[in-house]
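User: Sequence recovery, please. Input:
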């Protein structure tokens, strides 16, 4: 069952993705400072040997993101023009943000980062710490700007170093049930 007024209903058989659009609703302008909760998850170790995979958002259904920012609007007013930019140490330029026009009260945006990493990362022979930098900007209904920054310290493994799983501890499932 689709929401009332659903338009452009499409089903992609390959990705099994069902999508539709809804007409835009003009929300009443509410005064007040936005309240947000922003957090970031990131891959703690990256492999130089497969650096090109991290820039491909289509690879394995988008599984090889390097970081993702979770932006929650916890207040009672909408947030406008949200932009999230990333940089991965000296091996990438600052990313170009795709703006999110409106984040309504209670709304959540999950923005994933697929960096275009420079090939010189292949010159690394040993595990190397990097600076993952995230900057986010948004406006309130009156046009006042807000911003914040976060930084983490992932490591790039040397060209001949490998990791067998790119899952973080919180992504792993240790729910193996043993029957005796």
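Assistant: Recovered sequence (180 residues):
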């Amino acid at each position: 069952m689709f929401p009332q007024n659903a338009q452009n209903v499409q089903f992609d058989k390959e990705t099994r993705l069902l999508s539709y659009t809804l007409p835009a609703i003009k929300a009443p302008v509410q005064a007040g400072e936005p309240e947000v909760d922003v957090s970031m998850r990131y891959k703690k170790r990256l492999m130089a040997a497969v650096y090109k995979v991290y820039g491909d958002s289509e690879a394995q259904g988008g599984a090889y993101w390097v970081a993702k920012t979770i932006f929650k609007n916890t207040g009672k007013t909408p947030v406008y023009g949200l932009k999230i930019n990333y940089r991965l140490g000296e091996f990438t330029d600052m990313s170009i943000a795709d703006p999110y026009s409106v984040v309504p009260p209670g709304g959540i945006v999950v923005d994933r980062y697929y960096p275009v990493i420079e090939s010189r990362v292949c010159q690394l022979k040993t595990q190397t710490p990097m600076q993952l930098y995230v900057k986010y900007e948004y406006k309130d209904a009156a046009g006042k700007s807000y911003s914040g920054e976060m930084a983490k310290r992932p490591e790039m493994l040397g060209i001949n170093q490998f990791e067998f799983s790119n899952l973080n501890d919180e992504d792993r499932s240790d729910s193996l049930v043993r029957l005796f």
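Residues 174-180 have pLDDT under 50 and may be disordered.
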